[in-house]
Write a structure and sequence with these properties.
single chain, alpha/beta, Rossmann fold, binds adenosine-5'-diphosphate
Length: 196
């Protein structure tokens, strides 16, 4: 099962991803997490990504593709995964499409959360991650609007998009996401149960 999760920064995607991978038994691939780890270990890729991440810019596609490809080659991803924070640009979406076509495994569903801008800023200022300063937050929201939001239409046209109201309680968001995955789960031989 191949699932993509798109949402603006601060929407609560991380929390929902944790619950989804537990419920679905899928590996969780967060490009943001992978890049932060690479930065911490000061690998060449991490060093190259650092300046972009610290200023709230997107890391260049070829670096993100490198780190993602390495992870996808590990065998726990054979049956699919939950992609969190990737793709973030139309170019990355096209590259993902090619990559999945080569594997013969089409994308099953794209999940998205819808949250007001003021609430996004409030949530990000609360979580105290080192790259969450007021300046980078504003920058990341702008980059999201310009680069990532167009993916919603791209996937809507392919009839893959499920948008959930991210202003609901975390439990309700999770229930809505799981309900939206019912069909996909049946297709992959899972009997959907009550996620509550
Ligand atoms: P958030 O959900 O708050 O945006 P992430 O952990 O997904 O946080 O990403 C943090 C940073 O990592 C981004 O601001 C960006 O610099 C970089 N990054 C993560 N994923 C990608 C990607 N797919 N393409 C380019 N840059 C990325």
């Amino acid at each position: 099962m191949w699932i993509v999760f798109i949402s603006p920064p601060g929407a609560g995607k991380g929390t929902q991803c944790e619950r989804l991978v537990r419920a679905l038994g899928l590996p969780h691939l967060s490009t943001g997490e992978m890049l932060r780890e690479a930065m911490q270990t000061q690998s060449p890729l991490g060093q190259a990504a650092a300046e972009y991440m610290h200023s709230g810019q997107l890391v260049p596609d070829h670096l993100v593709m490198d780190i993602l490809q390495q992870r996808l080659d590990e065998h726990d991803c054979n049956q699919g995964c939950l992609l969190d924070g990737f793709p973030r640009t139309l170019c990355q979406a096209e590259l993902l499409h090619e990559l999945l076509e080569r594997r013969g495994t089409p994308l099953d569903r794209v999940l998205a959360l819808d949250v007001d801008r003021d609430e996004l800023v409030r949530r990000m200022l609360q979580r105290q991650r080192p790259d969450d300063t007021p300046e980078t937050i504003a920058q990341r929201l702008e980059v999201y609007q310009a680069e990532t939001a167009p993916l919603l239409d791209y996937y809507r046209r392919q009839d893959l998009l499920l948008t959930v109201d991210g202003m609901q309680s975390p439990d309700d968001v999770f229930r809505s996401l799981m309900a939206g995955l019912d069909q996909v789960r049946r297709r992959h031989g899972h009997e959907p149960e009550d996620p509550s």
